[in-house]
Amino acid sequence: MARTAGSHAETTGPRVREAAQRLIARHGYAAVSMRQIAAEVGVQAGALYLYTPDKQTLLYDLMRLHMEELLATVEALPPLDDPRAALDRFARFHIGHHLDRPEAVFIAYMELRNLTPENFAAIEALRRRYEEGLAAILRDGVARGAFALPDLRLATRAIIAMLTGVTHWFRDMGPMGRDEVAACYAEMVLKTVAAP
């Protein structure tokens, strides 16, 4: 199949993913067709298959790339010996990273149901790896007497849900800036798990 004049593999591939992410975040996976994605990119519908075998793979790749970037960034942070400082940094990092990627975050959470079982398992493994980073901080805090938790797994999921929820309502033009919101949430998280 001939490539559309002016398209280049190194630029069109990322443009396909960007267009798919934008459209899926706006309309939902089920409502977006490959033809719509092609029109958004400015290529013929058949040309999309030079960059992805199908829409399912495209969705999976969007989620996988989001999770891999998230993990690479958080795992590159230097270790902190104080569990309170580590939890504070995790909360601020999570909010900041996710606010910069609202479409990717929306897709990563809302479109899981549209993955095939194999793709779902792969994304869930990446999500568990991220959760384990937070769980390790909480576990360390409990062991040192800094944190008190009724259930480690539940606390891990509750904190991630709380921090991710910021992406649903935060707007840069609102009364509080990103750093201020992140600081407030970090304080709330620390108070939630603090040992009496």
Automatic annotation (TrEMBL):
Signal peptide: none
Domain HTH tetR-type span(s) in chain numbering: 10-70
Residue intervals passing through the bilayer: none
Ranges of the DNA-binding region feature: 33-52
Pfam family, one: TetR_N
UniProt keyword annotations, A-Z: DNA-binding, Transcription, Transcription regulation
One example GO MF annotation: transcription cis-regulatory region binding
InterPro entries: Homeodomain-like_sf, HTH-type_TetR-like_transc_reg, HTH_TetR, KstR2_TetR_C, Tet_transcr_reg_TetR-rel_C_sf
Superkingdom as given in the UniProt entry: Bacteria
Protein name as it appears in the record: TetR family transcriptional regulator
